Amino acid sequence: MAPMRSALSMSALTFVLVLGGGAPALAAEDAVHIKYRQKVMTGVGADMGAISDILKNGLPYTAAIALHADRLGDSAALIPTAFSKNVSTGATDAKPEIWQKADEFERAIQALEDAADDLEEAADDEEPAAIAKAFKTLGKACGGCHDTFRKPKEESYKNQ
Amino acid sequence: MARAFGAALAWLGLAGAATAQTATLPASIGRGEAVLRAAGGCTCHTNYPGEGDDAPELAGGRGLETPFGTFYSTNITPHRKTGIGTWSDADFLRAMTEGRAPDRSHYFPVFPYPAFSNMTRRDLLDLKAYLFSLTPVERENLPPDALPPFRLRAAVAGWKLLNFRPGSFEADAAQSPAWNRGAYLVNGPAHCGECHTPRTLSGGLDRSRWLAGSAEGPEGELAANITPDRRTGIGEWSATDLAWYLETGIKPDGDDTQGLMAEVIEHGYAHVDAADRRAIAEYLLSLPPIEHEMKAPDAGK
After folding, report:
1. Contact residues on chain A for B250, CB-CB shorter than 8 A
2. Which residue from A14, B144, B204, B280 puts its CA 20 to 30 A from A130's CA?
3. Which of these, B268, B245, B267, B264, lies nearest to B256 by C-alpha position?
């Protein structure tokens, strides 16, 4: 019995060492991915909010809408990198579906890019009706992705 | 007797319309659609979560989870067997303002008749005219998945004694017409309080925290504090921010909206007159701010 017990405690010791040493490092590594990801998405929100401000307050900045839309297209191109690491636990509202339904996620990003392009074009043409329509499509692109891939607010880490 | 009463009510509705607008107006389908939009499109009666965008509109069958069990919305298309196709005007008014079915049984208060009881007869009858103009859909209503006593319609009588006072909206002469319009919309058709006000233990709305947010909204959703408290509510929003939000679903920080609120914007508030969205905003931002922090119901577990 004695050798067996020591074999057991050896493996238990190894287990403890691996977990004890590895887990915090992993969590810390995950956290930096989450932080980067959230900065990319905050950038998307900032441009959406800025375009909203121009439209709802009637600011005479139509050319700026085109620039914001252009930036949204660039942000969309950053999203695949931002979500390349599969992390959906911790201080994040990313759902595991992002990696389970990778094709659908990719299509949702494409929808954002397309909608941003359309808004840029409408703003370049200075067509208010086309701008309003393209902005609505852009809003739907946000929702189309968030509905499936972001935790609802009752499950958000911010509300726990 | 009931029929005579119904006729009298219908006449009162038309009489109201006649004074408000031109002469002898029959209930208007077009106005009725506007009323439906102001009610958020009545999307609880469409099973979008279960059947997606192809769900038959207003044919019911949508499960609404509440702390008391899951209740299924009803078919409000004019199908004569499974919908409301045989309802008289009086039946419709009784359902919307008293929470009672044509056979006089009580509706579960998941159906927000406390709010709808504030609506004008004209709005209600126009809404009925619109609903009756739709294509009937054959779909049977489903019984609730709830434990007794919450599944017993008779028990609703007790609930009503505790929690239900039929309303009738009264304008405040000291306030502007836009404010009064907003007050009517918020407390009547738009039925904001039904989700955004926390409930008491008996499932009534907690009047001391009116519109201050609920962690246990329908479908388990967290409904935001929409009083103008700066920290926990929408006190940092301008009236323009709020009107724009009700049109587009985009918040001042550029974020969008999910869940039931996204639905009622898309199928409802986005389609009402811009002046009505503005009126709702003016009214909500004039309310006393209530500090009430929203947390998920099982937070910390």
Report:
1. 48-49, 52, 139, 142
2. B280
3. B245
Chain B residues in contact with A146 by the CB 8 A cut-off are: 256, 258
Q: Is the minimum CB–CB distance between A40 and chain B shorter than 8 Å?
A: no
Of B244, B253, B296, the CB nearest to A159: B296
B contact test, residue of A154, A156, A160 with most B CBs within 10 A: A154
The DSSP secondary-structure symbol of B66 reads E
| Burial (0-12, 13-18, 19+ Cβ within 10 Å), B248 | buried
Break chain A into its structural domains and give their ranges. 32-159
Place of tokens 């859909």: B137
State pLDDT tens for residues A114-151: 999 999 999 999 999 999 999 999 999 999 999 999 99
Residue closest to B77 by CA, chosen among B134, B145, B149: B134
* Contact indicator for A120, A70 with CB cutoff of 8 Å: yes
Closest Cβ–Cβ partner in B252, B259, B300 for A49: B252
Q: In CATH, which superfamily holds the domain spanning A32-159?
A: Cytochrome c/b562 (1.20.120.10)
pTM for this entry: 0.87
Measured between CA atoms, the residue of chain A closest to residue B237 is: A53
pLDDT, mean of residues B189-214: 94
What is the enclosing helix (H) or strand (E) of A50?
helix A2-56
The interface predicted TM-score of the complex, written ipTM, equals 0.84
Chain A residues closer than 8 Å to B65 by CB: none
Lowest mean pLDDT among A85-99, B6-20, B201-215: B6-20
Q: A146 at the B interface (CB within 8 A)? A: yes
List the 111-130 stretch of A: residues with Cβ below 8 A of B.
none
Give residue limits of the domains in chain B: 8-13+26-163, 177-286
Q: How many CA atoms lie within 13 A of A44 on its CB side?
A: 28
CB-based contact B96:B191 (threshold 8 Å): no
Q: Are B243 and B277 in contact (CB under 8 A)?
A: yes
Instruction: State how far residue A47 is from chain B, nearest Cα, in angstroms.
Output: 7
